[in-house]
Amino acid sequence: MSGIARNTHFTVGPALDALEALLPGLGQTVLTTIDLTGPMLVPAFTAWDAMGVAQEYFWQGEVNEEVALDEMCGDDEAEREAMRDGMVTRKMVDEAFPSWSTMWPKRRKKVPLRVLATVAATARSAKARRVADLVLALRRLRLKDECRPQGDGWFIGFGPVLMWRDNDLTTRIFDDFCNDACQSETVDWCGEHRFDLRDDSSVKNWMALMKPRFKGIRLLDNLIFELSAGDWRRIPKGFR
């Protein structure tokens, strides 16, 4: 199934901000779990992906738009400003997301499993307890990167698109990227595994491979629902 056909947009920024305020590193740990585990289940398009697409696709592999403007406009300041007004800029990305959300996930602050377990057991907010419990379950899955999609071109096989705020820059970057990328070769499926339907052992191996993935997809779906539902600004603070 095409990632474009199945993707749905969810607003998760208020939840991640609230979790980060509840315990420094907690919001970062939740987002990192989505960023690192999601690609082995159903990849979510997050703030990290938004930054990556901006850098690789719009800014020609650079940290901001200046080199792209140099190549397209040279020293013509009026043309540079006109071009800048119509494109995604580094300033726009930095203003749209917390700095930790767009950095390489393994560089973010992490909450240890024992602390996550404490949050799941003692946070005053039932929503925070459920999120911590789901993250614990995802972190405990034993998954290997065995179903990576094989194909040439830009990867657009994302499932959920996770916005920080309703209709924020994530949506624009995702839509512009997919619309442009579709003009050339793309990979629009999120995973694959080849097996022989005539071979019972091959089918059993596939079923064994998929069992933890189906569990993980259910957990990831529930996690994104918890993050995007309700008013996270009103959750109880602290621990019992």
Give an overview in words.
By secondary structure, this protein is mainly alpha-helical. The chain has one domain. 53% of the residues lie in helices and 4% in strands. It has helices spanning 3-6, 13-22, 26-37, 47-58, 66-73, 77-85, 90-96, 113-122, 126-139, 169-181, 200-228, and strands at residues 9-11, 154-155, 161-163, 186-187. The strands form two sheets. The protein has a two-stranded parallel sheet with strand order 1-3. Helix 9 packs antiparallel against helix 11 (200-228). The termini are far apart.
Ranges where pLDDT stays below 50 over 5 or more residues in a row are: 1-6
The residue-averaged pLDDT reads 87
Number of folding domains?
A: 1
- Total of DSSP H or I helical runs spanning 4+ residues: 11
Tell me, what's the shape?
Answer: flat
Q: Classify the secondary structure makeup into a structural class.
A: mainly alpha
Mind summarizing the main beta sheet? 2 strands, parallel
Number of strands: 4
Q: Level of helix content?
A: 40-55%
Strand adjacency order, main sheet: 1-3
In N-to-C order, the SSE pattern is: HEHHHHHHHHEEHEH
Distance between the termini: 44 Å
DSSP strand (E) fraction? under 5%
- What's the gyration radius in Å? 20 Å
